[in-house]
Predict the structure.
Amino acid sequence: MLHSLPPLSIGPVRIGFPVVQAALSGYSDWPMRVVARRLGAPYTVCEVLLDRFILNVTKGSKARRFLRITDEEHPCGAQLMGGVPEEFPPAALKLVEAGFDVIDLNFACPVKKVLGRGRGGFLLSRPETALEIVARVRDALPPQVPLTVKMRRGWDDSPLSAENFFRIFDGAFQREAAAVTVHPRTVLQRYAGRADWDFLREVKRRAGGKTVLGSGDLLAAEDCLAMFQRTGVDGVSVARGAIGNPWIFPHTRALAEGRPWRPPPLHEQRAVIAEHYRLAEEIYGEKRASARLRKFGIKYARLHPNASRVRDAFVAVKKQSDWCAVLDTWYAEDLPGAVPSPPAREYYGQ
């Protein structure tokens, strides 16, 4: 039990309980963020946005989907990715104009096509460019809008990679980044093996009083508390563990405060899943919402006592009536919820 987790702040933005939802490519859109916030996530970050995309999207359905932020979400961060330093500041300002409270720079994404275009984790091999981006964006942002950085622990396991990591890490704080989130796998490692929490401990020790968040292998509430205990980070950023399990946030808080916790019963799960679908339909329309939410339904199924059969039912969903049928069939009786098994080690975010 951790009865005294200090509240988290990112620059002037007060977060509170230091367990937040990470940016998740293809997942942390407006519906997922709203559901997480309502269940206790004190801060969320939108799915990574390409700087050129932000500059070219001015109105219409895409702007409504990707730049949407509502009053109940604050504070909320926007994660920005690109490869050309000059293109970051105007894109960052557009995100501030849309209403996001924090701008986060992605120097972490390990996807091959991203790396091939000089973006994401590739920038860990180009510290001068990475730090130029930090400086340009910080200079462009209003003083009240914090800038943060998301990093992996380097390109690979070489000494040069470690040297580049710390050049960027230290340099980001010198250029007035408010916080850095570190995922302690290398870019080339992607999601193989275990995240190196010992490296996180070293990074936090080096940072001293500067704000460091940890990420990697946070698949359950117990993992979040274990990362605090083992590394001393100021906050943890939950990625894969939050997909289909927004209850990881109240669960972690309960454990930290020494309170009992039980998995949500099926009627509570049903209400949350139905609301998640309703929010998705609001911005995507029925056809797109059904297709987009299928991957969430598969993950929500892990909390059902008949997880494998419910997963198969969600896999078959194609339209709104199918969603209703799954909920009517499998969530009619208010049975106790199950403790979800850890998700498979797949790629979901940075």
